[in-house]
Amino acid sequence: MSENFENCILKDEWQNGHHRQFLVDRATGAVVMDAYKNYRISHEEHFIRKKCRADLLKSVECLFGKVMTNKNGFKARFSKNTANKIASDKAITKSVVNGFSVQDHFEAAENIKGIFETADFIGSFPDTSEDPNIIAIHRFQEEIELSSGRKCFAYLTLKEVKKDGSRIYTQELLLKKYPLHKAGELTSRDFKRSGTVAYKCNPRTDINISWLKEDVK
Fold this sequence. Notes:
The chain is of the alpha+beta class. It folds into 2 domains: 8-38, no CATH class; 43-211, no CATH class. Helices cover 30% and strands 31% of the residues. The protein contains 8 helices and 10 strands. Strands 6, 7, 8, 9 and 10 form a 5-stranded mixed beta sheet that branches. A hairpin with a 5-residue loop joins strand 4 (67-69) and strand 5 (75-77). The two termini are 24 Å apart.
């Protein structure tokens, strides 16, 4: 964070399937600011993100243009635009503020095919921007185990549009699963659910430290 907020805590908020984190005053409970917007990327982290982006685009290139199928029958196209969206600063920052490293975010991104295929369907939501070309926003989640052994939840977003069907839009990492009592339970209660075993992610390519140091200079 760019400032010292010792008297604040992070608070989750869910609205129409969107997950947000706010800095809240510990004593009063008043919202101080949006934690995502307040996050500042350090000089070193900037270059870590840059390297991870390049690695991701190379590792998932074979998936561009392919259609993935979820266990509940949902189909979604994966594209270079999807990879770029997941690798965007906005998407990375969400995972980082949620308590994960840049490398964690990209490890899950490289495993997105397997994660989507086994993910639980949460529900369908209206597009908050009211774009007439968007039919619905579909949300999925899957408990995953990173190569470090840490368990968490991958939260995936699909956009269903009139012209091109559904496409995977983005993914972020969460410490806690989506609270179904908030929304989506009526549209998802009859779908297949994951068991107790988390999806095990394959490790991503290690950061090339010599490459990183050269760029930081």
